[in-house]
Amino acid sequence: MLKLIQNEWMKLWHKKGTWAMVAMLILVILVPAGITKYYEVKSPTEGSWQDIEQDAIQSYKETLAGEDLTEEDKAYFQEQMAISEYRLANDAPSQKDSSLASFMSFTSGMLTLVTLFTVITAASIVSSEFSTGTIKMLLTRPMSRAKVLTSKLLTTFLFGLLLYVVNVVVSALIGLVLFGMGTGVELEMVNGQVVEKAVWSDLAYHYLLSGGDFVMSTLFAFLIGSVFRSSSLAIGLTMFLSFTGGMIVMFLSRYDIVKYIWLTHSDLTQYEHGGGSMIADVTLPFSLTVLAIYAVVFLVISYSTFMKRDVTA
Asked: Can you give the pLDDT of all 313 residues of the chain as single tens digits?
């Protein structure tokens, strides 16, 4: 099995597209960092942080004096004003917008690009063997078809995990070099009390929850690529469902069946900061259970189709 994975890994890196995906990921991290640093140097913030917080408090008071605010808006501005007052009372400046933590929070949103590149790999790693005819040579080896397909699946996930690591490491290095660690603190309102925000643990939790869409999109693309032997269909259908999944869930939200569709649960980041699903009675454990069932179904279909297919056809 290890030899098969090594072989798949070497074939993957012999493709120019693989290097292009890694380069593009690094580029989309580097360019925004450079732009942010450029404007930070060109237009430095005027006034002390205390002046900025005082101005913010005054702005919140003027906004709250308005009569067209909803209760939710009032609660939001009152919380923000309480946080600003806490900063002044406790000499707790906020971190700059251009700090290591804030930059890594920004680049964590680029995990969708990691998922896209992994989907492209998953969609083509099996279908390309059929389109080029190399699948016949591959299956003549004294290895079962199940091991061959498993090696391709594991290689795909290893590549995706590598992209995850590249995202984190490159973001950390660029953020540290350009912006530094930062000296302020982030605050939030919890149960009516102002508390310090756990920035790094929240960021790690976001990366963990982002794995839901990453895994399910990869397995679905792998399924379509294995069954239909078309990488373009697999990529197109997977990305279509990724971008329209929210609308599909909203359209079906009036029906109970929506609770049992994997698109409802794939975005686990909806459970961040104590949040919940837009669908009633849906919790994180329930979402994980549904995703696990769909993952098994996707794998069963992929393996059964691949093992029964006549490669001479």
From this structure: 788 888 888 988 988 989 999 999 999 999 988 888 877 777 666 667 678 888 888 888 888 887 777 878 888 888 888 888 888 888 877 766 667 888 888 888 888 899 999 998 988 888 787 777 777 777 677 778 788 889 999 999 999 999 999 999 999 999 888 887 766 677 777 777 887 777 788 888 888 988 888 999 999 989 988 888 777 888 888 888 877 877 888 888 788 888 888 888 888 888 876 666 677 778 888 989 999 999 999 999 999 888 876 665 4
Give the count of beta carbons closer than 10 Å to the beta carbon of residue 173.
12
Only one residue has tokens 């290095």, namely 173
- Which pTM does this prediction carry? 0.81
Sorted by where each begins, the domain ranges of the chain are 2-40+98-308
Cβ neighbours of 127 (radius 10 Å): 25
